[in-house]
Amino acid sequence: MPGSPTSQLSTPDAAAALSASGLPFLGPLAEAWGSTAGGPELLSLLDGFRERMSVRPVEDNAQWSEVPVTRTESLAQEAEKEKRTPWPQPLVSHYARYFRDGNRTAYEDLVRARQERLTRAIVMAALSAGSLAAGQASRAAYQDSDSDPEADAEAWLDEVIDGALLLCEQSSWCWAAHDDVHTRLGHVVPDRDRPYLDLGAGEVAAQLAWLDHVLGASLDRRSPGLRRRIRQEVQERIITPFLEHDDWHWLGLDGHVHNWNPWIHSNILAAALFLVEDGALQAKTVARCIEGLDRFLAVIPADGAIDEGFSYWWNGAGRALEALALLEEATAGALAADLPVVRALVAFPHRMHIGHHWFLNVADGRALAEGNLPWSMVRKWALRLGDDQAARHAGFMAAAAPDAAFGLGRTLHALLERNVEAAHTAPAAPPLTAFTYLPSVQIMVARQTPGTTEGLLVTAKGGHNGENHNHKDVGSVTVAVDGIPLLVDAGQPTYTAQTFGPNRYDIRAMQSGWHSVPTPFGLEQGAGAEFGADVIQAPTPKDPRLVLELARAYGLGGGSRWTRAVSLDRPGSRVRIVDSWDLRAAPSLADHRPSSSRSSGTEGTDDVDIHFLLAGTVSLGPQGTATLLPHGIPAIDASGARANSASRGGTLRWDQPAAVVLVDEWLLDDPLLASVWGARLTRLRFRMPADQRAAGSFALTMEATP
Q: Are 431 and 464 spatial neighbours (Cβ–Cβ below 8 Å)?
């Protein structure tokens, strides 16, 4: 899930002040660990760390020969198809496309394919070597029964060697979308003399590190010199730039900390542990990783909310949890992170669960969870922390076998995690909690029937438009029936150069006009933290009703107000969304409309509209009603299989018969959006009558169909 930061988290002023002063940063890790997190004490703690790793080298054949066939079958099948075929070859023409026409997938897809193939080959080589040593070379999970076991093991090792050297020869490990070579030099060719340390570079370094740890002795035997080359490349491209430069934006030295921080630091941590042989340099690098992770944890609010949402939790908070687990292993538990912030982070995913594989999505997030997420990591943390709900949820969601898209480190841990198998033989039911409210981001999730997907679920979001990966979604509402969203947030489209450029909000999916929010005077919400909501009434478990003041999100001043109340009436089996407003005057309209509208000369209007974005099949009924059905949504069931068997939908009713109802179809030509919602989304625009423009109210209710 590649990404780039767009704006700032609500970070503590103290964090920025400490960074600016040059004083040592004191976050939760520094407070808990003190001097053991650096200097001579850390150097001593790391001594002999390899023997403490839960993932063992292939020489430990007991571990590698006991991996269940069910966990390796899909990896093996794909690896066999790839074996002895040409490797994916990213070219400079693919790299240059980002700078020429904004396309980033042409290059990134090939890089990802190369790394995923290498991950599969590493797994096959490790399984072959482990099984060979244990005298079980005939296992069909990873090789043909008629082949020579030793020759087959060597063939997989050669596949690994070829892939690893291709990475070493790759001119840049950085993704083109992040490289500064074009802005700095005007070039579209990577600059080998000044490598840019980004998400992609960190991913390659960590992959080579885990490879070295698991197959290092085999590499020395089969391809002497390769491990030296790997260390040289990682030192030049990763370790040296990391230690010598303090201007990487993702370090968070200015107090602005986002998901790049733990994503990159966790990968550098693996590289430092497994590829840096000088003890002092290793400890120095690890200490700086700890300090960086501490900055991330310091800005996490007490409720554990991630403003980027569930999708980016995995490449933000999830990466931090992996790094903390690795540190604990490497130091024999001396650096253990049983901290309140960690407990809050572990609970976040299940609190955002709608049902099946659907989750509340905000910002650049998908509503449909990917099937290859490393839930075993979450389950392990939850079990350790005694969080039964998080453990049950992770056990329910975990895939039966890892996918190479995990990345190598995640794949290895998932393969060798003994608890995963037990979780799949008798998966616990997910908790499907009744109510969640996260005050730091003003998000409410309320369920009609706790413990089951049956019935209604409503979410409401306040927040502000300066959040990371922000969409203009202040006041947005989603509603699901039987665990399938019908009133929705479109979520993340395919990334291009525009996604994180100055014209980001020309993209339809990012605009407030295509979220379920009001549009007073035809206005878009403003961009920036100053454009946000104020909580008038916070919800409670017994009264799941969130009341927000939205005027500030549109820059409406002069005493104007727009109040939105979102509630779940459990006894009445309905969701109710009530808007009321008193608009004194429109602000400067040009500041809040998409630049595409400004360039065409379009100005604001006198119209006051309220928008709702719907998925599935939408049918207008008798005056004041509409029916929503999930037909057309490529839903996914709890087992991970595609299905669309749900027949129950929802009925919309509104109490303003004079409102004009306008219907807009959004035909989804973006493959990422279409994979979640199907062929189309539908927008209902309720236009208020003339006598209700200055002041008025509008109520929409939604019930499940019988």
A: no
Question: d(Cα 215, Cα 220) in Å, to the nearest integer?
Answer: 9
> Tell me, what amino acid is at 513?
G
672-695 burial, b at 16+ Cβ within 10 Å, e below that, comes to bbbebbbebbbbbbbbbeeebbee
Residue at which a domain ends, from 219, 245, 271: 245
Compute the half-sphere exposure of residue 636: CA atoms within 13 Å on the CB side of its CA.
17
Q: Return d(Cα 109, Cα 114) in angstroms, integer.
A: 9
**Structural domain tally of the chain?**
2
What pTM does this model have? 0.91
Q: Is residue 573 part of a domain?
A: yes
Question: Is residue 221, in this structure, part of any structural domain at all?
Answer: yes
Instruction: Give the type of residue at 223.
Output: S
Name the nearest CA neighbour of 637 among 374, 280, 356: 356
**For 577-634, what is each residue's pLDDT tens digit?**
999 999 986 555 444 444 333 332 334 678 999 999 999 999 999 889 999 999 999 8
Percent of the chain, pLDDT > 90?
80
Residue 267 CA to residue 280 CA, distance in Å, equals: 19
Q: Read off the pLDDT of residues 112-144 as tens digits, 9 standing for 90 and up.
A: 999 999 999 999 999 998 877 666 544 444 444
The two structure tokens encoding residue 133: 């040593």
- Give the phi and the psi of residue 615 in degrees, each rounded to 5: -110, 160
- The last residue of a domain, from among 245, 273, 302: 245
In CATH, what number is assigned to the domain containing residue 439? Answer: 2.70.98.70
